[in-house]
Amino acid sequence: MTEIRRSYCGLCHPRCGLLLEIENGRIIGVKGDPEHPISRGRICPRGALMPDHVHHPGRINYPIKRQGERGSGKWQRLGWEEALDEVTEKLESLREKHGAETLAFTHGTKRTYHWDERRFFNLFGSPNVCGANNICMCPSQAVEYATYGGFTWGDVMHTRCVVLWGHGPSQSDPIGLYPMILRAKRNGAKLIVVDPRRIDEAEKADIWLPIRPGTDVALMLGWIRIIIEEDLYDHDFVANWTVGFEDLKAAAAAYTPQRVAEITWLTPEQVVASARCYGTT
Known about the structure:
The protein is an alpha/beta fold. It contains 13 helices and 10 strands.
């Protein structure tokens, strides 16, 4: 018997709605849920591959314990209560012998703020929680918390200029960000794409900058020089809320449009036009 069950994809942040076709306890089909308030029927390849995730033969669905030497490939299946009791006993023993800080936890991108692991480590008594945040959103969050107190998200759909710098949301964020950018374009926003590849976003851009790979900072400094030189910045904001402006101005002074063009393989006209487009919106 086949039935349709409403679910969601948990593989990234939007939690897109799914309609799963179930037959004899297995997923045999997936499509987007048009009633989901965020994804509205759209799903990306991650969601479409949900049956492969759920029914993969290598998926571990119960506790197992290594038997013999590491690497021998021998495992014993345990019950949940047995596994939890054994882990609890081991953790308590380590804490009594070495102190709570003997326990540390690390994992991947942008996940180390999660309340569950933080709560567990607070109760256990260890501060040692970390992760490879440098490859996700942590650099942005760290800078924004350090400068103005919190992580922000711009009002993309109502902006007048979108800059995609080495970012292709039509593939990496097709459910959330990309539809917002398309709507912003329909509202009249300018789109600048800085990317050596002629991606879909470049086809839709008002200005596409096919930059030489690895020369991004030179283009940034070129923009800064033009914005300062043509007085396109907010003087009050700089005076009241920044430090090091004169140092920044000095650092950017050598990056004329001609020099930036030589470094980046763009033309001086592209450098100036893109800086003015960004600086005047």
